[in-house]
Amino acid sequence: MTALFINIGISDIIDILLVAYLIYVIYKLVKGTVAINIFVGLVSIYFIWKLVEMLQMRMLSEILGQFISVGVIALIIVFQQEIRSFLLMLGKLSFGRRRYGAALFGKLGASSGGLNIDAIIESCVNMSETLTGALIVITRENELREVLESGEEIDAIISSPLLESIFYKNNPLHDGALIVTDNKIVSARCVLPVTKNPHFPADYGLRHRAATGISESTDAFTIIVSEQTGNYAYTDKGELHTKVSGAELKEKLQKEFGTN
Fold it and tell me: What pLDDT does 155 receive?
């Protein structure tokens, strides 16, 4: 007599939970994109294949098995952007662990005494009053080398007058993002990847989209000064925070980059 029950051990439960979580993560990456329909279709075919195998339908199982095998190559082609986002997310988790490890032995590269938060806030206040648009990217573990190559190298210590002069509308460097690393302005007029989130608010412009895009794909922190309203905003861990006050922005910078 055939057994009616399947023996399930702890390892099987862990295996099922890990697979379910992996599918959930992939679903979040492709949700809202045209790739979601392809993803659902491939998952459906996979489960049908497993069901056909259980029912011992050998011919149909062979056909679906071959389709799944060839489909791996198609997945890499169709989902190349999503695979890149997934790997970047894993990299961000790895960078996070390195940050905690570095905290035990002291911060590396902190010889400049930490980020000059006062200079950044002062420049943001002045640019807000004159309705000067600004996009400042502050790096953490990720050095943003690809982004740096798209701009102009500066390598200067942060100061409020320098920040304001770079974003002055007649300055050829004002259009684009400014990158700050270890209390230095390392590059300006950099091109950032914009967010592909289809639910991104339509009333925010390219600066906000670019700031969110770089925050989604890296561990960078960004500050935005709106050219239309003078309002402040910042992005962190892929989330856009708008209409924050100068005091709130300073408090956030001190929490993330202040020295003890």
Answer: 87
